[in-house]
Write a structure and sequence with these properties.
Elements lengths: L1 H4 L8 H14 L5 H29 L2 H8 L5 H16 L3 H8 L12 H48 L11 H24 L5 H11 L8 H12 L3 E3 L3 E3 L8 H30 L1
Antiparallel strand pairs: 1-2
Length: 285
C-alpha cells in the first residue's frame, strides 16, 4: 500500500490531524516557563494515549482491510525515498538552489549555505535517521502493541518534530515530548543500525566499526546510530558543520551516493517490514 499509493491526502491524514491538534494546544499553552514545562508533560502523555485509545477502538471493530488502511498513515517509506530522490535529481542537473529547497522537506537545519557535498550528506543522514522515525519504530510499535501502539508512537514523534527544539519557545514546552521520543526510539534505532550493517554487503565491517566509534557523536542518542552505520556502509563522510562528523577519514558524498543510500534504506524497509509482520504474528498467537 505504501509503495503503490504513498501518503493519503492531507485532509484525511491522521498525522496532519495530530499536527493541527498540537498547534491548537500550543496556542493555549501558558506563557510562564514553569507552567509550560508541566503543560508540555501533560500533552506529551495524554495526546499519545488518546490516539492509542482511538486506534484500539478501530482495531476491535474493523475488518483487517480497514485496519490496514488505518495503519498505513502511521509510517511513510515511499514519501521518505521520494524526498531523497528529489534532492538527488536537482543535484544531478546541477541546480543547487532547488536541491537546497527540496532538502528542507528532510531536515530542519538551515540549508541556504550548504554546498553540493553537504546537501548530499544531509539527504543521506535524513534517509538513514528516518528509516527509524518514519518506518521501523511505528512498525515495531504495531507489531508489539497493535494499531494503538503505532498511533501512540506517531503522536509522540509528531510532538517531538514540532516542539522538540532547544529554543526559548520550546525548551520547556517540548522537553517531555523530546525525552519520550528518545526513549521510544532507543531500541528501534539500534535495530535499524544492525539491519543496515547486515545489508552493507562487503562493507559490513566498515559499517559496524563506524557505528561503534561514531554512533554516539550526535546530540541525539538515537539519530547517530543509523547515520554512522550508513556512513560506513557507503564509504562516505557525513557532516553537519559545527555539530558532528561521521566517518571522518572518508570523502564527502556525491550525488550518486544518494541513490546508493536510497537503495540501502529501501532494502532495510523491506526486511524490517517482514520482521515486523513475523513479530506481530507471534505476539498475536
Amino acid at each position: 500500500m505504501d509503495a503503490v499509493c504513498g501518503e493519503p491526502p492531507a485532509q484525511f491524514h491522521p498525522v496532519v490531524w495530530m499536527g493541527r491538534l498540537l498547534e491548537w494546544l500550543e496556542a493555549r499553552a501558558p506563557r510562564h516557563e514553569p507552567a509550560r514545562l508541566y503543560y508540555g508533560i501533560g500533552v506529551a502523555l495524554t495526546v499519545p494515549l488518546a490516539w492509542a485509545w482511538l486506534a484500539q477502538r478501530v482495531e476491535r471493530v474493523a475488518p483487517w482491510p480497514l485496519q490496514a488502511l488505518a495503519l498505513k498513515p502511521a509510517f511513510a517509506g515511499r514519501a521518505l525515498l521520494e524526498a531523497g530522490r528529489r534532492v538527488e535529481a536537482a543535484l544531478e542537473m546541477e541546480r543547487l538552489e532547488p536541491a537546497r529547497h527540496e532538502l528542507r522537506s528532510l531536515v530542519s537545519r538551515p540549508t541556504t549555505s550548504l554546498d553540493p557535498p553537504l546537501v548530499a550528506a544531509a539527504a543521506i543522514e535524513s534517509l538513514a535517521e528516518n528509516l527509524v522515525d518514519s518506518w521501523l519504530s511505528p512498525l515495531l510499535a504495531y507489531a508489539l502493541f497493535g494499531l494503538g501502539g503505532a498511533y501512540a508512537y506517531r503522536a509522540v514523534n509528531t510532538a517531538d518534530s514540532m516542539w522538540g527544539y532547544r529554543t526559548p519557545r520550546y525548551e520547556r514546552l517540548g522537553k517531555a515530548a523530546a525525552r519520550l521520543d528518545d526513549v521510544l526510539n532507543f531500541l528501534p534505532a539500534r535495530v535499524g543500525a544492525l539491519v543496515l550493517c547486515c545489508l552493507a554487503g562487503r562493507r559490513w565491517r566498515a559499517a559496524l566499526d563506524t557505528w561503534r566509534t561514531d554512533g554516539r557523536l550526535t546530540s541525539s542518542p538515537n539519530a547517530g546510530q543509523t547515520m554512522a552505520c550508513a556512513a560506513g556502509a557507503l564509504g562516505v563522510r557525513l557532516e553537519k558543520p559545527q555539530h558532528y562528523v561521521l566517518n571522518a577519514a572518508a570523502p564527502l558524498p556525491g550525488v550518486e551516493t544518494i541513490a546508493r543510500a536510497r537503495q540501502l534504506v529501501a532494502r532495510a524497509m523491506w526486511l524490517t517490514s517482514g520482521l515486523a509482520l513475523l513479530t506481530r504474528m507471534v505476539t498475536r498467537d
